From TrEMBL:
Originating species: Intestinicryptomonas porci
Residue intervals passing through the bilayer: 119-151, 163-186, 192-214, 226-247
Subcellular compartments: Cell membrane
A Pfam family assignment: ThrE
Membrane-topology annotation of the record: Multi-pass membrane protein
Name recorded for this polypeptide: Threonine/serine exporter family protein
Primary localisation category: membrane
Length: 252
């Protein structure tokens, strides 16, 4: 019985860690974990800290096991998040055993995000569209190619395990600098291009999650996410300011 409880605890902790790593809200993590625990006949007590999960799992006899797990950092992955939530509902319906859950989680971890080239084109086109929306005119083409370069630069630095704020700083500098250079070289006009080139770096989902966590009463988790998101915003602003300092004041 104790061995089965500890195995369940290990699986549920992995599940919670994966949800947190791929960007789920804290309250949603609680709901998914409670759904799985109750389906397997356990009562969970959960503490979610910014980088750590602490959980106690008690069975019907009152015996309990406790575990602590560090949450690995990772990028947002909505596909994985969605698949994990679907799995939690299947478990609550009684159609998935512990062994099947482990196998399914292994499969979900192998799911790829949107392919790099498709994501690259979508992000670049989105930034260019924003530039056109705000009156950028032909400079939207400069934004498209500048975003391509900046996205590639950020991906390259991330693959080299470069600190995330530094990745954002370099990407903002490349996006703004490349936009300014192309606009000046081809006389496209539209100074808005320098500013719209960094829009893909705005950490919208982390900021939204932090607000939702605070409103749900998960103050510590929410403030931590807010602090991390604002660090990225500050790095982006510094990159933009550096590009403006290098490429001239006509864009101010």
């Amino acid at each position: 019985m104790a061995r089965e409880r500890e195995e369940a605890l290990c699986i549920i902790m992995d599940f919670a860690s994966e949800l947190m790593r791929c960007g789920s809200q804290t309250a949603r993590i609680f709901r998914n974990i409670e759904r799985i625990s109750f389906a397997w006949g356990y009562a969970p007590q959960i503490i979610i800290l910014p980088k750590t999960i602490i959980m106690t799992l008690a069975d019907s006899s009152g015996n309990s096991s406790t575990a602590v797990k560090k949450v690995a950092s990772g990028a947002l992955n909505f596909r994985e998040m969605s698949e994990l939530r679907k799995l939690s509902w299947r478990i609550s319906e009684g159609s998935v055993s512990m062994a099947e859950c482990k196998a399914e989680m292994a499969r979900i971890r192998r799911l790829s995000r949107i392919s790099g080239n498709r994501l690259l084109i979508a992000v670049s086109a989105g930034n260019a569209a924003f530039c056109g929306l705000f009156g950028g005119g032909l400079s939207m083409f400069a934004v498209f190619f500048a975003t391509l370069l900046a996205f590639k630069a950020r991906s390259f630095l991330a693959s080299k395990k470069t600190p995330v704020p530094l990745c954002f700083f370099v990407a903002a500098f490349v996006a703004s600098g490349a936009s300014a250079s192309i606009v000046n070289l081809f006389h496209l006009g539209g100074t808005i291009s320098v500013y719209t080139g960094v829009l893909f770096l705005v950490p919208g989902i982390p900021l939204l999650n932090s607000a939702v966590d605070i409103l749900d009463g998960h103050i510590l988790a929410g403030l931590s996410r807010f602090g991390n998101a604002m660090t990225l915003v500050f790095a982006t602003v510094c990159g933009l300011a550096s590009a403006l300092a290098v490429f001239g004041g006509e864009f101010l």
